[in-house]
Write a structure and sequence with these properties.
26 strands, Molybdenum Cofactor Biosythetic Enzyme, Chain A, molybdenum, six-stranded mixed sheet, Molybdopterin biosynthesis moea protein, domain 2, binds ligand LQZAQKY5, 4 domains, elongated, Molybdopterin biosynthesis moeA protein, domain 3, binds molybdate ion
Length: 401
């Protein structure tokens, strides 16, 4: 069977994936989540012309000849506007955030004024409108400032609050069940038998899911038994998982039972085996409404495939605005041999040289079981199938973690 190009696999994976349903969530619980609909301002901000500094509300025309004396006729702290009018020759003591009184058009900061009783001496002039924030400087009622699909990061969250939304309509977090498979695996903290290793991927994938706005549920480790794997698949279905991610058992060995088991459970296979390294045995399908992403067992293969496929799948389920992987150009620090038919993803350190140019240094060790290099890498060098040999100083495409 031919290996499928990465771009085609990604396109097929995302085909027909729509966003999860919307739910109303209190703003305090909305951080990091995704808006389901556009958010418009319910009020104008600032709602009135306001002072941007502590000082005196004056008429700019009164400051034509400096120094000059103005009569202080009242005070306007934030939250308590002055109700009178500032006429020529008058000033109001004002504080940052207070509404600009009627008649005044300019703020003279207190550093440029001297006060004696109810007389203020202006020591410097101020151009018309200085330190006045006009009403609507930030936004007007009805302005759509956050779009459906935007992530409510700390900045967007503050803006939603300023727009006076106590609740927001968000996409339900996609549910992702994560199943590790293999007789050789034990959970971290357990004592492995003589032929066993500690399983790692399920923790990495679950963390990736949470970081991408999903809700992860680790189903534990299934032995290499069709009955046991099937039991976990049903568990994922009864949890109403949007996605089941299986780890391992995806290749061609006698004990690689995941695909066959899923097939017996009714999974429709979308594709299997991708022209990429690591990650060749990646598999995708769906079992009723539940998408299935079968990742290879090698830890680096699982996590690189998670980065390249699971992240965009979660973005699509959340209806997020930015889905495409951003590639950058970097200068190679070491030569690379000609590539074979699989698109290569090489773990690399990235840094900026003295001239500010991005430099990529591939790790010598690229075995797909070596997690330490993945954790130390800043990104991946991407090499197209059959890319020619490169020397140090040549340009490569990179993606950052
Ligand atoms: N004859 C062939 N053999 C293999 C091929 C092939 O095309 N022909 N493909 C190789 C490639 S590429 C990969 S990648 C691996 C992936 O195979 P599986 O997805 O079936 O993974 P396993 O065999 O179950 O495990 C591979 C490796 O990873 C370890 N593993 C599994 N799960 C975990 C986990 N949760 N945490 C940590 N480590 C895990 C497992 O012990 C194995 O060492 O197949 C090649 N073989
Ligand atoms: O594709 Mo496997 O993921 O090379 O190691």
């Amino acid at each position: 069977m031919d290996l499928i190009p990465v771009a085609e696999a990604l396109q097929r994976l995302l085909e027909g994936v729509g966003p999860t349903r919307a739910e109303r969530v209190p703003l305090a619980e909305a951080g990091g989540r995704t808006l389901a609909s556009d958010l418009a301002a319910t009020r104008t901000q600032p709602p009135f012309s306001a002072s941007a500094m502590d000082g005196y509300a004056v008429r700019a025309g009164d400051l034509a000849n400096i120094p000059c004396d103005l009569k202080v006729i009242g005070e306007a702290p934030a939250g308590h506007g002055f109700s009178g009018t500032v006429n020529s020759g008058e000033a109001v003591r004002i504080f940052t955030g207070a509404p600009l009184p009627q008649g005044a058009d300019t703020i003279l900061i207190q550093e440029n004024a001297e006060r004696a009783g109810d007389v203020m001496t202006a020591k410097q002039g101020a151009a018309l409108g200085t330190y006045v924030r006009p009403a609507g400087l930030d936004f007007d009622k009805g302005d759509v400032l956050l779009k459906a699909g935007a992530i409510l990061d700390y900045r967007a969250l503050a803006l939603a609050a300023a727009m006076n939304h106590a609740q927001v309509s968000l996409r339900r977090r996609p549910r992702v069940a994560v199943l590790a498979t293999g007789d050789e695996l034990v959970e971290p903290g357990e004592e492995p038998g003589p032929d066993q290793i500690v399983a790692s991927n399920q923790y990495g994938i679950a963390a990736l899911v949470e970081a991408c706005g999903g809700e992860a549920r680790r189903l534990g480790i299934s032995r290499d038994s069709q009955t046991e794997i099937a039991g976990h698949v049903r568990e994922a279905l009864s949890w109403n998982a949007d996605v089941l991610v299986t780890l391992g058992g995806a290749s061609v060995g006698d004990h690689d039972l995941v695909q066959a088991t899923l097939g017996n459970e009714g999974m429709e296979l979308s594709f299997w085996r991708i022209a990429m390294r690591p990650g060749k045995p990646l598999m995708a399908g769906h079992l009723g409404p539940m998408r299935v992403l079968g990742l290879p067992g090698n830890p680096v293969s699982s996590l690189v495939c998670g980065h390249l496929f699971l992240r965009p799948l979660l973005a699509a389920l959340l209806g997020r605005l930015e889905k495409a992987e951003r590639q950058e150009q970097a200068i190679l620090a070491a030569p690379l041999a000609e590539n074979d038919r699989r698109q290569d993803y090489l773990r690399a350190r990235l840094h900026h040289d003295e001239a500010g140019v991005l430099v990529a240094t591939p790790f010598v060790q690229q075995d797909s079981s070596v997690l330490s290099c993945l954790a130390a890498a800043d990104g991946l060098i991407v090499r197209a199938p059959h890319a020619p040999a490169l020397k140090a100083g040549d340009t490569v495409a990179v993606i950052r973690f």
